[in-house]
Design goal:
Layout (H helix, E strand, L loop, with lengths): L2 E12 L2 E12 L3 E5 L6 H8 L7 E6 L2 E2 L4 H5 L2 E4 L11 H11 L7 H7 L15 H12 L6 E5 L7 H16 L3 E6 L2 H7 L2 E6 L2 E6 L1 H8 L3 E8 L2 E8 L5 H11 L1 E8 L3 H9 L5
Parallel strand pairs: 3-8, 3-9, 6-7, 7-8
Antiparallel strand pairs: 1-2, 1-4, 4-5, 9-10, 11-12, 11-13
């Protein structure tokens, strides 16, 4: 695996309170790493260190083989960043925002209308971004992160404020970038988003990484698959769970079917939310 991002023992504190506590990870080319944790867990601080806005107080970071402490300017020309905070020029239109941002990279000829269409924004609107909804601003932030055709994307809650259809459109854009070989660092507290997009996820809690693996491996290691059966008993609807990994699964199911008036049954597996709570004792929200 070609390692595009390397973080070794990185640390950052605010007023002597550790926000990120000696964490390490690597991300390969074309890989999406979901950084999963509740608000205040250290996600955004980690992102800011990776993008050079904050310098780690201990440890080392390299992006595209470049030390962030030595040549952040060279790194910034090859990355795209979408922060949760909407730092757009609100007195400009969407096209003016993207055109101005492109000029900062020395880009003169790029298809701004195509980029707007990719994120589901109208190419005909000429009004100021000030009048945009929260969701429209978020889509424009994603578009802006793609202006310079980055090799690495840093996305902080990229579907925040979007309706389900728009959120799915943005997820598809992220997956398209991955297929091009773009590496993605994705921070989110949305377990469904992390599960859909990430090749691997890191659970961060109180500044430490509690687990780092593929979603499937985490589910198999810490979760359990169950069969939920609803049945009638004296006109009351009751529900029981049968562990699908038990040795007596066949006999247990047969007993349930023979002894009860079964209404329905379905399988269910542990979610990333369940596993995060198991490992940290906290909910993601």
């Amino acid at each position: 695996m070609e390692e595009v991002i390397q973080a070794k023992n990185i640390t950052y504190s605010y007023n002597k309170k550790l926000a990120v506590d000696h964490i390490s990870f690597v991300i390969g080319k074309g890989e999406i790493l979901g950084f999963l944790g509740p608000n205040g867990a250290g996600k955004t601080t980690t992102l800011k260190m990776l993008t050079g806005q904050l310098l780690p107080q201990d440890g080392e970071i390299s992006v595209l083989g470049i030390d962030v402490k030595k040549d952040i300017r060279k790194i910034k020309s090859q990355i795209g960043v979408c922060f949760e905070e909407k730092n757009l020029y609100e007195d400009m239109s969407a096209i003016e925002n993207l055109t101005f941002f492109a000029s900062l990279f020395g880009i003169k000829n790029f298809d701004v209308k195509f980029l707007l269409k990719r994120v589901g924004l109208s190419v005909d609107r000429k009004d100021r971004v000030l009048n945009y909804s929260k969701g429209m601003k978020q889509r424009l932030m994603v578009a802006r992160a793609l202006v310079n055709e980055p090799k690495v994307l840093f996305l902080d809650e990229p579907t925040d404020g979007l309706d389900p259809v728009s959120a799915e459109d943005i997820r598809n854009v992220i997956l398209e970038e991955k297929r091009k070989g773009v590496t993605v660092f994705l921070t989110t507290h949305d377990m469904i988003e992390a599960d859909k997009l990430s090749d691997r996820v890191a659970f961060i809690n109180e500044g430490k990484i509690a687990a780092l693996d593929t979603p499937d491996n985490l589910k198999h290691r810490y979760g359990k698959r169950v069969l939920k059966i609803r049945y009638l008993e004296d006109k009351d609807v009751k529900e029981e769970e049968i562990n699908l990994e038990s040795e007596d699964i066949g006999r247990n199911i047969q007993d349930m079917l023979s002894k009860n008036n079964v209404l329905d049954m379905h399988t269910e597996e542990a979610t990333l939310e369940d596993i995060f709570k198991l490992l940290t004792g906290r909910k993601l929200e």
